[in-house]
Structures are given as structure tokens and as C-alpha cells.
Structures
1.
Amino acid sequence: MKKKYELFKAIMICFLVYVFLSWFIPAGSISGTTVETSGGIAPVGLFGLFYYPLLTIATFIQYAAIIFAIGALYGVLNKTGVYGKLVKNTAKKFERKEKKFLIGIIVLFTVLSSVLGISYGLLVFVPLFVGILVAMGFTNITALAATIGSILVGSIASTYGLGSATQVVNVLGLKMNDNILPKFAFLVIVLVLYVVFIVGKKSSVVEKKGKLLKKENKNLVIPFVDDEKESSKNVKPLVIMLVFLAILLFLSMTNWKFMFGVELFDNFYKQLEDIKVNNLSVVTKILGTTNAFGYWTSYELSALLVIFSFVIGWIYNLGLNGTLEGMKDGALKVIKPAFLISLGSIIFTMMLVGSGTTIFTTIAGKLLALTKGFNFATTSVVGLLTGFFYNDMYYGLSAINGLFTDFGSDYLPIIGFILQSMFNLVMLICPTSLILLSGLSMFDVSLKDWFKYIFKFVVELLVIVLAISIILVLMV
């Protein structure tokens, strides 16, 4: 029972920490290159304890929609009766090559996260690969580390992705290809360290003795797979649809123009807009409210998953009722992660309500003012705190960008590296990290167990980031 509400309590503890701080630290805003706190404190009162959680859920309900759409899709996959076969056949195909498959998944998720930054697009396929890894005999926490953990690790070493790297470039006024070779070198270091860390874990594999899993490992169930629903239907159409879905997500959620200067999809969308009948853009009106490929958000992602759910149901002759039943069954399995991922932005909500006047700005200003000019240590602490107050790094960087103006352009790439690395290190362990929350709750891994599992890696990577920061500073 304690485990059932563990993540909810962790989120609310973070909220109460903020509430406590709001009574003692004045909210500040940036004026020029300094912090102005003339407005005094802005404490959260009694009614705020109820108002802000509700406001958070209402504001960030789109993240719950993603989780429900993922659950609905996998509910339909399970309803076809062939999804379980796909998972188990894949596991069987890599029998005695389990570690190679594990390493391959870690590399795949980490590199795609680093280069493309499509975290929620990758999240769609996490249940599939978690299921395969569990079917191979890996523990659920190892499967989580290889998928969800790899997405977060890729963000730490972000190179081009619309996540961290792009946000740093936008806010600090850098160029996309600035220091790109060192970025990829850092990615290789982080990836090798993470692979060695996971593969070296003694608890990563559950020994099999004639059965798929040991009885005592009750948590090791293949997600979204009911054995009694297994069918003799062909698996190939399902594989084709999943590959097609992956390609669509890859093309639609990667900002080709900004990252690589490719304007193909922007031009194609413009051509669609130019197809008119009686001065009406027919094609875009039929498609409705959507963006060109490269600019798809959580809204298009959710809609696409629902569409694929119906198409897969049609292909496997589930009928409308069968498809809707599968979607309902899948959605019911993810009520908890959907609720938690919406609530997880509660501290971020407080930052948005402040409209640029927040206690984080005050804290960051005080820390950076401890030394004259740039200091990697205080900047690192600010980066860590950014991860607590914001789970969207762009808003966190924007809130304090003015504080780095006087440090000189030579230090901006170093500042970007530190803030990006430190922020995403926090995302690996903080209960307000949305990707982490979705994984922990969806695959029944406790925050305490995850913290014990990943803590050593976080410390190792923290040391490496600090060492690289010192070297970069000495080279200026």
C-alpha cells in the first residue's frame, strides 16, 4: 500500500518544499543583469495547497492525453492477440544474445534522444521494448533503465535534439554546430559509461529455470500482454504498422529546418496550403488544426496514436466494439501514470504563475553573485536547482539568462554545457521529471528502488561533468 502512493507523496513533498521556501525567500525578477526583489515574499497560503495541484492538472492535461493514447494503442495491440507473440518471438530470437540486445536498446534510445530529442515519440515504444527485455529475463528496473533511463541520459548529452541542445542554443544565442565535435565526444563518454553501468549490474538478469520468470519475482510481468488473448493471426502486419508509426514520428517530431537546415517538409506543407478551391485551402482544412512535419507536438502525437489504434483494429478485424474495448482496457491500465505525469509539473506551474518573478530567480541571483564573473561551481548548483524548479529547461534558462550576460561570450558554451548536463542529471532522479514519472508508474518501479539503482551512475557522471567543466574553463 505504501508503494501505491509513493510517487504521489514524492511529488507533493516537492510541492511542500516550495511552499515552505515561498514564506522566506522573496520572489525576484531580472532587471538588466541583477535581480530585483522589491515585491517581497509571495507565500502560498492554505487554499493554495488545493488550488495549485488542480491548476497543474488542468494546465498540463495534454501529457495525460499522451499516456492515455499510448495505453489505448497497446490495449488494441494486446486485443489483436498477436502482440504477445511478437514480444515473445523477438525475445526467443535473441536467446543467448540477451546482453547484446540490451546494449543495442541502450545505444538506440540514448543516441536518438541525444540527436533528435523526441522524448515523447520514443516513449511510445518504451512498453514494447520493456516487454521484450522482460521476456528475455531482465528485471523490470533494468528494462526501465535501458529505455526510460536511456532517454534521459541522451538528454544529458544532447547534441542536436529539440530538447536540451536546441534550448541552450536558443536562449544563450549560440549556433547549432558550435562545439559539435566535443558534444559528440561527450555523448560517447556518457553512453559507454551508462552501458558499462547497466550491464555490470548483478541484479540485471533473472535466471530462468524452465519457466519464463521465477515465482518470487512477481513484478516481472510483460506489460500490456495477456497470454490468454494470444492468436494464430499473422504478426507481419503489426510489425509493418509499428515500423510505419516509428517513421512517421521520426519525420514529424524532428525539426529538420532548425537542426539541419532541411526545408523539405516546410515547403511541402506550403504547397498543400496552396491547393485551393474557391480560395479555400482544401487539403489543410480537411487535415484540420495541425502543424507541418518537424513541428508536431503532444497534440498531434496523441491524435496519431488514436488513429493507429483504429487502423490496427481494422486490420485485425476487431470491429468497432472490439477496438474500443481494447482502447478502454489499455487506457485503464495507465490511469495512474496519466494522473502523475500531469501533476508532476506542479513546481513548474508555480514558476509560470510567477510570470518571471520567482523565488528561483532570487536564489540563482544570490548564488551567481557569490563570485565575481563566471564560476563553474555556482553555475553547476544553479543548473541542479533549475532541474528542481522547472521540468522544461527552456523556461528555466530563459528565467535566468540575463544573469550570464556579463560573463563574456567565451564562457557561454561552457555555461550551456553545465546547465544542460546538471539539469538533466536532476531529471534522472527527481519525482517531477515527467518521463521518469511515466516510466516508474507504468512499470511499477518504486522511486526508492530507482534511486538506489541509478545513484552511483549519477555521482559518476556528476564528477565527469565537473571535471570537463574545469578543463573547459582552463582552456578559455
2.
Amino acid sequence: MHFVDGLRAFAMFAVLLCHSYLYAGINTLVVHFGAHAVNAASLFGFGNVGVNVFLLLSGFCLYWPFVKRGSRPEPNLAEYLFRRCRRILP
């Protein structure tokens, strides 16, 4: 599902633009559409939406292998804790 990775990249780019806007001190970025002018810099302040979308899509990508047809069964809590402890503890 390459489109999900594309959406994650778009969300990451939104966060990058928001951080650039906040820390660079850019107050105006005028874009002209014929006789109209729009201040596009105010749109960069919505980077928190990109964070939420990125986290939502990342969670979807992590859970997708469990819900695909013919995939392995969902692990229970005991199996998860056993594998986690085996990997972390020396």
C-alpha cells in the first residue's frame, strides 16, 4: 500500500513546513492568483494536524499485517510480554 506511505510523507512534510515557519520567523509568504493575493504563511501553522495524521497512519501500518487475510494470528498479552522481555533483558 504505497499510497499510505505517500500520505505519511505528506504529513511529515506538513510538520517540516510548520517547524520552518515557526523557527525561521517568516511572517508573510504572499502567493498571487491573478488579481488576488493570499498570505500562505498562515497555513504553515497547521503542522499539528500533520503530526496527528502521521501517528494515525503509522499505527495503521503497524497493525495492517495482523488484519490481512491469511496472516498470522493476533498475539495475546502474554506472548507479547514474553517476546518483549526476551529482546530487552540481557
3.
Amino acid sequence: PASPAAEAYRRRRVNLSAERELPLHTLLVVAADSDGDKDSVAANLAVTYARVGKQVILADCDLRRPRVHQLFGRDRSVGTSNILVANCTLDEAIQQTDIPNVDMIASGPVPPNPSELLGSKHMMEMLVELRGRYERIIIDSPPISAVTDAVILSKIVDGVVLVIRAHQTNREVIRYAITQLRNVSAHIFGAVLNGVDMGRDSYYYYQYYYYYYGQDGERKKKTRSRRSLRSRRYYGKDAEK
């Protein structure tokens, strides 16, 4: 909870909630391409909302390469695809996680027609029922550059967060993803630049965070050389103080 990564997700939560005329109840997390690691972003956003007391559900709607169940150590044999073909109820598909206030729906078996299922009336009905139970609904979907699933889902949620992998996602792929979303009038709330190697800047960010939020509750005024702090950040004794 005191790590720079956790603080970054808290900032995302605040940014998504502030200065927004549109409501935020259902949020679609989608990668521009397959390198985005969007399922981890979706899971961490769910946890971050839960930490402030929101009742959150994370629904795995990536019916092609599902992974959310692995992140939480759960089974995916019953989930979204079962609901959408009407062979199980929502209650039968919802699973609790080990994190308070966070429930999840796994993908279920991989179907032969994911796009058709996600665009069906059963998907709308599932979201309507979830809205009555949870304060935040976070949906994980396939990358937008590969298939139409994310575009279909973007039309029935309050907003979209686009996940971009630093130094890997091609700019043309990003432009294509944004164009696809805008073509259906999706509300793009913003983007997460993931997998950034901060390099030199990470030293300054860590030093700032350590200075103001030392675990012993005191402000740290002792300075160290850049190399010393970086080398002992994770492995040295100072990392535990």
C-alpha cells in the first residue's frame, strides 16, 4: 500500500472520479494491442476502488484469452459465457475474492462466437442486474486492435480506459484504437501508460515518496547519492526502514 505503484493507481481512481460530468458506474478496460497487460490494470483498479469502501465486481469479458481468474486464483469453468447463453444465473457465476469488497466473474468456457454473445441482449441484462448490486463494475475485454469485442462493449458502458504498453505499442495501433472507439461515440476517460521504465526519473520519484511517506512516520531529510539509493532500494537494509 505504500509503494509508488499503489499510489499511481490511487491517482487513477481520483482522476476517474473528478471533474467528470458523466457518471462512472461501468468502466471498460481495454488494451490497444496484445502487449498492454490490461487484465492486471483492471484488477488493480478494482482493488483500488474497494480500498475506499466501494462494492466492486470485475467481469472478465475477454472470451478469447481470459486471464482474470488466474490473477485471483479462481476457476473459470462458470462465468460470463455461461450467463450470455443463459445456462447459469448471475449468482452462480459470481465468485468472491480474497480481497474485501471485490467480487469477480470469470470468463467461462471460450465460446465460438464471442462478439455475438457480447452484443446480445443477455449482456445488457447482465449489466443492468450488476448495476443494482455493485457501485463499480469493471470489465476486462480483448485488445481493440484484434477483434470487435471491445468496440461492442464500449457502447454499453459509461467509459473506457485505454491501456498502452510503453515502447511496444505502435502509435498507429493507438490511433486506430482511438478512432474505432470514437466512431461509436464511446466515452474515452483516459489512458494508462503501462510498463514504463522510469530510469533516471524513478530515482527522483522514489526519493520524493520516501521523503514524505517514510514508514516510521518521520520526514526523511538525509540525502544519499543516486547510485547508493538506487542500488539499495530493494535489496539493502535501508529498504526495510
